[in-house]
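Everyone, study these two lines:
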Amino acid sequence: MHSKDRSLVVQFRQKALSRLQSPEELDLPVRFARPQGRFVLAVTALVMAAASFWAFTGSVSSKLSAPGILTRAEGSYLLQSPYSGQVTAVLAKEGQSLSPGAPLLQVATEQGDRTVRVVAGGRVTSLAAKTGAVVTTGADLAVLERLGGADDPLVAVVYASGAGGAEIRVGAAVDLDVQSAPRQRFGVLRGRVKEVGRTPQTPEQIAGFLGDARLAAQFARQGNPVAVLVQLERSSATTSGYRWSTEGGPPYALDSTTPVTAAVHLPAQRPVDWLLP
């Protein structure tokens, strides 16, 4: 280092030491924070206080989405053939209501012609057998919807996941997006939870109620679900006879076996409950 540079360093050090040792510097006030800093601190404290108040006194609502189907409260059953042979006559049609023991098909067997009769009264929702078809014992012939009365109302059966079903309460409001009634035009169908299943259902149990193994496999695709019975709200002001989020709903009646997607309103929760065990 040049002598000139060393001289400058020494002079700088001497000036710095003299300032530190000067008693005049001890009389200067200490500035803890600028006014802008105090304002930010005050706003932060206010926001935290408001958030704490909301966490304890506010509430947050949520909805659970689950697939389902429109049906009757007593469900449907699958009628299977008690005979092997060829179908020679179909004695009913889809949509027809049959009384218990009513004839459904004629089957030509080795022992002669046999009549297949319905086990319980109901409405034929699906007819698989056709004239000329060859059937075996146990073959699926038809699905019949059980009817307790001629004017039995429709219900929706919703299949929620086991964890989600535990949160659903009887009486909860339900919004149903009906496949045959576009939501953009007619809104949603209104209902209330009437019953919540106690245990998850197997595909076999679902098929036993709906009379349709294919639908059962679809509803149980993500695991055994809980069945939730939804009572539809009635209305004399709509063509369908049920209440919708729009004024009139669709200008036609609703059919059973129509797929729906349900949005079940869950109980409101305080935000602080999310933090508590």
User: Anything to note?
Assistant: Residues 89 and 182 are 38 Å apart (CA to CA).
